[in-house]
Amino acid sequence: SLLVHGPIRVALITAALVALSWDLFNFFMPVHAAEMGLSATAIGSLAAAYSAGSLAVRLLLGRLSTELDEARILTASLLLTVLVFALTPLASSFAILLVLSLLTGLILGIGQPLAVSLLHHNAPPGRSGEAFGMRSVIVSASQTFLPAIFGALGLALGTGPVFWVVAAAILLALAVVRPSARAD
């Protein structure tokens, strides 16, 4: 019955998109970088750049969310994720992948806290725990099933097209749910 509530449904779908994006980077960027011939040290540097970006944006998130609408920030974050994922297969060097990893961390570092905040603000009275539980199920399912799906797609298409497929899926989902819209 909680999914009938429009803002919660949109917040949960948005949380799923953030989890999808987070999992794609964490699972598939190392695979993509290895396919490009990068060393383990270089791949670790990509993960470090991502983490640094995520930490940096979270230090600024409190100020951003008081000055701007959280749903709009989250929508912009996911649109920028689409752009970065579309560019990732085109990256021809470690330096470009490093910049894209930092940008991905900056962009997705916003996602998880804002998705939780949207759930909290939009949950009907007395049902925020249920909404958070549903988000936990979505995140756990994402972490369980998406690596296998990404692996199968990567095997069938190569690593680059997986980023494009996910970018297209995020864009399509955003067009359908429009998280910045105030639905009831």
Rounded to the nearest angstrom, the radius of gyration is 16 Å
**Class from helix and strand fractions:** mainly alpha
Mean pLDDT: 87
Strand portion = under 5%
The SSE string, one letter per element, is: HHHHHH
Helix content: over 70%
Gap between N and C termini:
14 Å
Quickly count the helices.
6
Could you give a short account of the major beta sheet? none
Principal-axis shape: globular
Spans where pLDDT lies below 50 across 5 or more residues: none
How many runs of DSSP E, i.e. beta strands?
0
Q: Features of this protein?
A:
184 residues; globular
Describe this protein's structure:
With 184 residues, the protein is mainly alpha-helical. 84% of the residues lie in helices and 0% in strands. The chain has 6 helices and no strands. The protein has helices at residues 6-35, 40-67, 70-87, 94-122, 128-157, 159-177. Helix 1 (6-35) runs antiparallel to helix 2, helix 1 packs parallel to helix 5 and helix 1 packs antiparallel against helix 6. The longest helix is centred in the N-terminal third of the chain and has 30 residues, at 6-35. The protein is globular. The protein starts with 5 loop residues before the first helix and ends in a 7-residue tail after the last helix. The mean pLDDT is 87.
Blueprint of the fold:
Blueprint lengths: L5 H30 L4 H28 L2 H18 L6 H29 L5 H30 L1 H19 L7
Helix pairs in contact: 1-2, 1-3, 1-4, 1-5, 1-6, 2-4, 3-4, 3-6, 4-5, 5-6
